[in-house]
Design a protein that fits this description.
The chain has 149 residues and is mainly β. It contains 2 helices and 10 strands. A hairpin with an 8-residue loop joins strand 5 and strand 6. The longest helix has 4 residues.
Length: 149
């Protein structure tokens, strides 16, 4: 580890589901190219879950940035979170390049969140780690307003 580097030099905010009250159905982040990342951490942030509501989240993979051939990544899904005890919780999913079906050309990932029964307040963030080329700040989403050191 290089202790003199700011964390923002080693990480990049590469995907997001903006904070929202998500209705019943599915919301997703944009597709992220794993070619330049050694690893990615997807975090799910829940607020109040609607009455009898459920939340599922998983990592999907695709062969291009438009989602061609999209399918779930085996083993990269959270255990369902339910209203009873589920309000104001978080979950995290670790993703590594070797988790993807690279032999079939899959290199893009996204987080998919499915809300069941009742609307739920949520957001999700995808953070890329140890970029192959350039500092993290140079590889962030265009919507990042500022990085302070």
């Amino acid at each position: 580890m290089q202790g003199n580097l700011d964390p923002s030099a080693r990480t990049a905010l590469v995907g997001v589901i903006p904070a929202q009250q998500a209705g019943v159905g599915t919301v997703t982040s944009g597709w992220v190219d794993m070619r330049n990342l050694f690893a990615l951490l997807a975090t799910l942030n829940l607020g109040v879950i609607g009455a009898a509501g459920t939340v599922d989240a998983r990592i999907d993979q695709a062969t291009d940035a438009n989602g061609a051939g999209a399918k779930p990544v085996a083993g990269l899904a959270i255990t369902r979170i339910v209203k009873a005890g589920g309000d104001n919780r978080q979950a995290a999913i670790n993703v590594r390049q070797e988790d993807l079906d690279k032999n079939a050309g899959f290199r893009f990932v996204r987080v998919t969140v499915t809300v069941g029964t009742a609307a739920t307040f949520l957001s999700a963030t995808l953070v890329g780690f140890d970029l192959r080329y350039g500092a993290g700040a140079a590889n962030q989403l265009g919507t990042v307003a500022e990085t302070v050191s």
